[in-house]
Amino acid sequence: MERHLFVYGTLMQHTDSVMARFLHARAVSRGSAFLPGRLYDLGSYPGAVYDPEEQSMITGQVYKIQSPEEVFPTLDRYEGVIATPEIPAEYTRTLVPAQHKGQLLSCWIYLYILDTDHLPLIESGNYLEYFNQRDTHRKFIRTGR
Predict the structure, then answer these.
(1) Contact 79, 110 (CB under 8 A)
(2) Which domain holds residue 123?
(3) Number of folded domains in the chain?
Protein backbone atom coordinates (compact mmCIF):
# COMPACT_ATOMS: atom_id res chain seq x y z
CA MET A 1 0.00 0.00 0.00
CA GLU A 2 1.21 3.51 -0.85
CA ARG A 3 2.40 5.27 2.29
CA HIS A 4 2.46 8.93 1.23
CA LEU A 5 -0.41 11.27 2.09
CA PHE A 6 -0.90 14.79 0.70
CA VAL A 7 -2.73 17.03 3.19
CA TYR A 8 -4.03 20.54 2.47
CA GLY A 9 -6.34 21.46 5.35
CA THR A 10 -7.01 20.57 8.96
CA LEU A 11 -4.42 17.76 8.94
CA MET A 12 -1.57 20.16 8.11
CA GLN A 13 1.22 20.95 10.51
CA HIS A 14 0.58 24.28 12.31
CA THR A 15 -3.22 23.84 12.41
CA ASP A 16 -2.91 22.04 15.77
CA SER A 17 -6.14 20.08 15.33
CA VAL A 18 -6.65 16.83 17.23
CA MET A 19 -6.49 14.84 13.98
CA ALA A 20 -3.36 16.68 12.83
CA ARG A 21 -1.69 15.61 16.09
CA PHE A 22 -2.96 12.04 15.50
CA LEU A 23 -1.39 12.03 12.02
CA HIS A 24 1.89 13.64 13.03
CA ALA A 25 2.40 11.05 15.78
CA ARG A 26 2.10 8.28 13.17
CA ALA A 27 3.85 9.77 10.16
CA VAL A 28 7.04 11.49 9.06
CA SER A 29 6.81 14.88 7.40
CA ARG A 30 8.36 14.97 3.93
CA GLY A 31 7.76 18.72 3.50
CA SER A 32 5.75 20.94 1.19
CA ALA A 33 4.11 19.77 -2.01
CA PHE A 34 1.71 21.07 -4.65
CA LEU A 35 -0.88 19.71 -7.02
CA PRO A 36 -3.07 21.27 -9.70
CA GLY A 37 -6.64 21.94 -8.69
CA ARG A 38 -8.97 24.16 -6.70
CA LEU A 39 -9.50 24.57 -2.98
CA TYR A 40 -12.96 25.47 -1.66
CA ASP A 41 -14.26 26.82 1.65
CA LEU A 42 -16.85 24.34 2.94
CA GLY A 43 -17.81 26.56 5.88
CA SER A 44 -15.45 25.32 8.61
CA TYR A 45 -12.82 23.41 6.64
CA PRO A 46 -11.57 23.12 3.05
CA GLY A 47 -12.28 20.72 0.22
CA ALA A 48 -9.89 20.06 -2.68
CA VAL A 49 -10.79 19.21 -6.25
CA TYR A 50 -7.90 17.74 -8.25
CA ASP A 51 -7.70 18.83 -11.89
CA PRO A 52 -4.52 17.98 -13.82
CA GLU A 53 -5.48 20.63 -16.44
CA GLU A 54 -5.86 23.41 -13.86
CA GLN A 55 -3.28 26.22 -13.81
CA SER A 56 -3.79 27.07 -10.13
CA MET A 57 -2.11 24.95 -7.49
CA ILE A 58 -3.16 23.60 -4.10
CA THR A 59 -0.45 23.99 -1.47
CA GLY A 60 -0.04 21.10 0.93
CA GLN A 61 2.29 18.87 2.87
CA VAL A 62 3.35 15.28 2.31
CA TYR A 63 3.60 12.72 5.10
CA LYS A 64 4.96 9.20 4.98
CA ILE A 65 2.54 7.07 7.02
CA GLN A 66 4.25 4.53 9.28
CA SER A 67 1.35 2.02 9.47
CA PRO A 68 -1.20 2.81 6.73
CA GLU A 69 -3.46 -0.10 7.67
CA GLU A 70 -3.89 1.45 11.14
CA VAL A 71 -3.94 5.15 10.21
CA PHE A 72 -6.18 5.29 7.12
CA PRO A 73 -9.34 3.80 8.70
CA THR A 74 -9.28 6.55 11.35
CA LEU A 75 -8.57 9.27 8.79
CA ASP A 76 -11.29 7.89 6.48
CA ARG A 77 -13.86 8.27 9.27
CA TYR A 78 -12.65 11.79 10.08
CA GLU A 79 -12.73 12.86 6.43
CA GLY A 80 -16.24 11.58 5.82
CA VAL A 81 -15.30 8.96 3.23
CA ILE A 82 -17.92 6.49 4.40
CA ALA A 83 -21.53 7.45 3.65
CA THR A 84 -24.39 6.72 6.03
CA PRO A 85 -28.13 6.68 5.25
CA GLU A 86 -28.37 10.16 6.82
CA ILE A 87 -25.13 11.73 5.55
CA PRO A 88 -23.57 11.34 2.10
CA ALA A 89 -19.83 10.87 1.75
CA GLU A 90 -18.05 14.22 1.34
CA TYR A 91 -14.65 12.92 0.30
CA THR A 92 -12.95 10.05 -1.43
CA ARG A 93 -9.40 8.91 -0.78
CA THR A 94 -7.53 8.48 -4.04
CA LEU A 95 -3.98 8.47 -5.41
CA VAL A 96 -2.72 11.55 -7.27
CA PRO A 97 0.71 12.73 -8.43
CA ALA A 98 1.92 15.62 -6.26
CA GLN A 99 4.84 17.88 -7.07
CA HIS A 100 7.35 17.31 -4.29
CA LYS A 101 10.94 18.58 -4.38
CA GLY A 102 10.93 18.87 -8.17
CA GLN A 103 9.56 15.38 -8.79
CA LEU A 104 6.15 13.73 -9.01
CA LEU A 105 5.29 11.61 -5.98
CA SER A 106 2.24 9.33 -5.84
CA CYS A 107 0.22 10.34 -2.77
CA TRP A 108 -3.10 9.55 -1.21
CA ILE A 109 -5.35 12.59 -0.88
CA TYR A 110 -8.85 13.22 0.40
CA LEU A 111 -10.73 14.88 -2.49
CA TYR A 112 -14.07 16.62 -2.13
CA ILE A 113 -16.73 14.85 -4.21
CA LEU A 114 -19.90 16.93 -3.74
CA ASP A 115 -21.08 19.90 -5.84
CA THR A 116 -18.83 22.98 -5.65
CA ASP A 117 -20.95 25.47 -7.65
CA HIS A 118 -22.17 27.29 -4.54
CA LEU A 119 -18.87 27.21 -2.62
CA PRO A 120 -16.38 30.08 -2.23
CA LEU A 121 -13.03 29.41 -3.87
CA ILE A 122 -9.91 29.73 -1.71
CA GLU A 123 -8.07 31.61 -4.45
CA SER A 124 -4.56 31.26 -3.05
CA GLY A 125 -4.91 27.47 -2.78
CA ASN A 126 -3.13 27.81 0.57
CA TYR A 127 -5.21 26.82 3.59
CA LEU A 128 -2.60 27.80 6.18
CA GLU A 129 -2.86 31.42 5.00
CA TYR A 130 -6.64 31.25 4.77
CA PHE A 131 -7.79 29.64 8.03
CA ASN A 132 -6.17 32.24 10.31
CA GLN A 133 -8.52 34.85 8.81
CA ARG A 134 -11.70 32.81 9.39
CA ASP A 135 -13.31 32.43 12.82
CA THR A 136 -15.38 29.38 11.80
CA HIS A 137 -12.26 27.56 10.60
CA ARG A 138 -10.25 28.37 13.73
CA LYS A 139 -13.16 27.22 15.91
CA PHE A 140 -13.47 23.93 13.99
CA ILE A 141 -9.74 23.28 14.41
CA ARG A 142 -9.94 24.01 18.15
CA THR A 143 -13.15 22.10 18.89
CA GLY A 144 -13.80 19.73 15.98
CA ARG A 145 -17.22 21.37 15.51
Answers:
(1) yes
(2) 4-143
(3) 1
